[in-house]
Specification:
The chain is an alpha/beta fold. It is built from 17 helices and seven strands.
Length: about 375
């Protein structure tokens, strides 16, 4: 997998998260290593990767500006001092009790043993409470890193309250979505390293589609490499794989902005029959509406010239308030175990279609 092959091994290789990288580097160069950390943010933004890099760097014999050298004995054997726990599958109090026993042992080499608890929001209430003492007074040779997508944000649940108490004992870092331009540059770098010529529009579509998740972008690029098997990967070859929701969303936007907005409802029914991801199409349509508003203020865009022209032609003369309503209505459509989002989208489209019939024209 490309995301494993090109996973950063030093701070300088990490894409985005500049202030977090700088803080962790400084903690090593100033010899002020925090013993408990919390990494929270979107999936695929580098939480576990940075935790591994940090775990390697704290034991490096000759770090360069906080970066691990990757050549000393400690760096070569860093895996022996890193213990990773998947709280998604090992979420009970027994896991924490085992950690207490394991962490009594000092590291084989270097100063620290690092424990990375991934998906820590999945810990049970008992497990989170059992970990409190460990996080309040960690042994001097232990570094504890919690990684989470921040899904325990319901203040009414006991698990959330226990997790909040646990998080308060940590130095917290909020990971932001990776910038679309940084994702594009990383994908271009991978293509160059792999010797695979790829049309620029393919990389741009992937960078837009993943919404800040670099790992998702690398996985999509990997799928494109496998699917195409052509000397040059072109957008028309992999359109069904990476950009089908965007195409359907633009089709939906064109109907909503036309003189026949009510036709958007049977159009969605057709999308549903054809097996398309309805919430993905709705969210992509909201993104296109937001892009149209941005283009009205600033002509720079990450879309191709042809797509930009089509988008501007589609929304020409459309009331700004209508586009704002579209973003609010369609950007919140989600699916669940009992709801595929189709009915919610149809209700939203009915409201938008009704308001479109009374919108003022040429409001740009």
């Amino acid at each position: 997998m490309l995301y494993n092959k090109y996973r950063p091994k030093t701070f300088s290789q990490v894409v985005g998260q500049e202030w977090i990288v700088r803080t962790l580097r400084n903690s090593i160069t100033l010899d002020r290593v925090p013993h408990t950390l919390l990494f929270e943010g979107l999936r695929g933004t580098g939480k576990t990767t940075l935790a591994r890099v940090f775990a390697t760097a704290v034991n490096c014999v000759s770090p360069v500006e906080g970066d691990p050298c990757l050549e000393c004995v400690s760096c070569q054997n860093s895996h022996k001092n890193i213990l990773e726990v998947d709280a998604g599958s090992s979420r009970g109090v027994e896991t924490i009790e085992d950690l207490h026993d394991t962490l009594r042992l000092r590291p084989l080499r270097g100063k620290f043993r690092t424990v990375i608890i991934d998906e820590c929001h999945m810990l049970t209430e008992a497990a989170a409470n059992a970990a409190l003492k460990l996080f309040e007074e960690p042994p001097s040779h232990v570094v504890l890193v919690l990684c989470t997508t921040g899904q325990t944000n319901n203040p009414d649940t006991k698990v959330s309250k226990a997790f909040s108490t646990l998080a308060s004992r940590c130095m917290r870092f909020k990971f932001a979505a990776v910038d679309i331009k940084d994702i594009y540059k990383k994908l271009r770098y991978i293509c160059k390293q792999e010797g695979q010529e790829t049309e620029d529009e393919v990389l741009r579509v992937i960078a837009r589609k993943v919404r800040g998740s670099l790992r998702d972008a690398e996985s999509l690029l990997d799928s494109a490499f496998t699917f195409s098997q052509a000397p040059v990967i072109r957008i028309n070859d992999v359109r069904g794989l990476i950009s089908i929701e965007e195409d359907k969303a633009l089709e939906l936007l064109e109907v909503l902005c036309s003189s026949r907005p009510f036709e958007s409802i049977p159009l969605v029914a057709k999308f549903h029959e054809d097996g398309f991801n309805i919430p993905a199409v709705a969210n992509e349509c909201a993104s296109l509406a937001a892009e149209a508003l941005s283009l009205a203020l600033d002509d720079s865009s990450f879309y191709s010239d042809s797509q930009r022209k089509r988008l501007l032609d589609t929304t020409k003369g459309v009331d700004v308030n209508f586009l704002v309503d579209m973003i609010k209505s369609l950007g919140t459509i989600k699916s669940s175990s009992f709801n595929d989002g189709k009915q919610d989208l149809e209700v939203a489209l009915a409201g938008l279609s009704y308001s479109a019939a009374f919108q003022p024209s040429a409001a740009w």
